[in-house]
From TrEMBL:
MF GO annotations: metal ion binding; pseudouridine 5'-phosphatase activity
Keyword Magnesium among record annotations: yes
Species of provenance: Macrostomum lignano
Enzyme class: hydrolase
Named cofactor requirement(s): Mg(2+)
Name of the protein described by the UniProt record: pseudouridine 5'-phosphatase
Enzyme Commission code: 3.1.3.96
């Protein structure tokens, strides 16, 4: 798809499943979590949770499966599993090349994630080279400025407002997402989206939308399609 977006000036990245392969960890741990109650973790539940702050995510699965636990008990149980596995999550294909390219061309970037501070620190605390490319990050799970999690636009609007200088026209921001909730949030914020969905996601919901570009992975991203400098000739993907 060709997008008329030569005026793109800033980039915002989701984290889970987009920069770091934590979604596979979530799936494995939630399968074990649900099995303790004789329940099944389905794609229907997962896609509703993706991108949301921890408390909202917990309430979704508790309500959907009618689990006899509180949000706090959910956190204690699932975090025991997640926090052990997150440090072993790998960087997603195409990420390092894209971040380095945008950074070299002085495109301001930030992270906007539904994670809270604890989860964020465990996932990326040992990756200073990754964080060094970003101007800032917004953690919707613990940031008081973010009133509502994705699919509300709050997270992305706060992220855009923290670039320097401001204000920034949302139409000049390109968001990179993997979650349907994140795509909806970016569109609600008036931003364009590169969507790298789970193969199970229904991409037809955004068919024909000029503000949404669907890619298999960030390896397939072509900067020049968005008015950004192209990768150097012969630059290998990861």
């Amino acid at each position: 798809m060709t997008t008329n977006s030569s005026s793109i000036t800033h980039a915002i990245f989701d984290m889970d499943g987009l920069l770091i392969d934590t979604e596979s960890v979530y799936t494995d741990c939630y399968n074990k979590f649900c099995a303790q109650f004789g329940k099944q973790f389905t794609w229907e539940i997962k896609q509703k949770q993706m991108g949301r702050p921890p408390n909202e995510s917990a309430k979704i699965i508790i309500d959907h499966l009618d689990l006899p636990i509180t949000v706090e008990q959910h956190h204690e149980m699932i975090n025991t599993m997640l926090l052990k596995e997150f440090p072993y999550s790998k960087i997603m294909p195409g990420v390092n090349r894209l971040l380095e390219h945008l950074w070299q061309h002085r495109v301001p970037m930030c992270i906007a994630t539904g994670s809270d501070q604890t989860g964020f620190d465990v996932k990326v605390g040992g990756r200073p080279e990754l964080l060094s490319k970003f101007h800032h990050w917004v953690l919707a799970g613990s940031d008081p400025a973010v009133g509502h999690g994705k699919p509300a636009p709050d997270c992305f609007l706060v992220a855009a407002d923290r670039f320097d200088p401001t204000p920034i026209d949302p139409a000049r921001v390109l968001v990179f997402e993997d979650a349907p909730n994140g795509v909806e949030a970016a569109l609600a914020a008036g931003m364009k989206v590169v969507w790298c969905p789970d193969p199970r996601a229904d991409i037809s919901v955004h068919a024909g939308n000029p503000s949404v570009t669907v890619l298999r992975s960030l390896e397939d991203f072509q900067p020049e399609t968005f008015g950004l400098p192209p990768f150097p000739t012969g630059d290998p993907s990861e």
